[in-house]
Amino acid sequence: MSGFRTFETSRVSFGDNRPKAPLVDAALVRPPIKRAPAKQWSEPKICQKGFIPPKPVTPEDFQQPCAFPLRRLMDLVCYITQFPAVHIRGQRRLGNLVRARQILFWLAKNNTEASFVQIGRLVGGRDHTTVMHGVRRVQAVIDRLNIEVSDCPVTMAERLWRAEWSRGK
């Protein structure tokens, strides 16, 4: 039977001058360690009558009740202006799109505890000075047109979007 080679099954041969792996005697191999099976977990028994288990802590528990989430304000401005969030976060500088962004800046500044940097990150990674400019611009429009300021962000967004902003600063 030419062409067939026989190989040792208990040793590894590399075909070069490296030493072969030693044979292992089965008598020298340790048996595996037997461990006790894990105990089954059972529900804790509550002996006190009227015990109420604690409520799990969520991140919303640490937010102030008056704070409005930034993402919710983004959804609000998108709904009122009919621009998708992708366009508001985008780089285009069309007049109405910039106006929608600036309304979002003003709402975020007045209804959240977020900083200018955090607001800028939400709106497409913009610089804090851009956010400051937008807030000042909207405040100037409110002052010039005597728009009544409301605590409700929905009402303010609608009033600001319907207002006639002048082209000049």
Structure write-up:
The protein has 169 residues and is an all-alpha fold. Helix content is 41%, strand content 0%. It is built from six helices and no strands. The chain has helices spanning 70-81, 85-89, 95-111, 116-122, 128-145, 153-162. Helix 3 (95-111) runs antiparallel to helix 6 (153-162) and helix 4 crosses helix 5. The radius of gyration is 34 Å and the shape is elongated. The termini are far apart. The mean pLDDT is 79.
Instruction: For the record, give the distance between the C-alpha atoms at the N and C termini, rounded to a whole number.
Output: 97 Å
Low-confidence stretches: none
Gyration radius, in Å = 34 Å
For the residues shown, what is the average pLDDT?
A: 79
Name the helicity range: 40-55%
Largest sheet: none
Oligomerization category of the chains in this entry: single chain
- Say how many strands there are: 0
Number of alpha- plus pi-helical segments? 6
Helix and strand content put the structural class at mainly alpha
Shape: elongated
The percentage of residues in β strands lies in under 5%
Instruction: Name the helix and strand elements from N-terminus to C-terminus, one letter apiece.
Output: HHHHHH
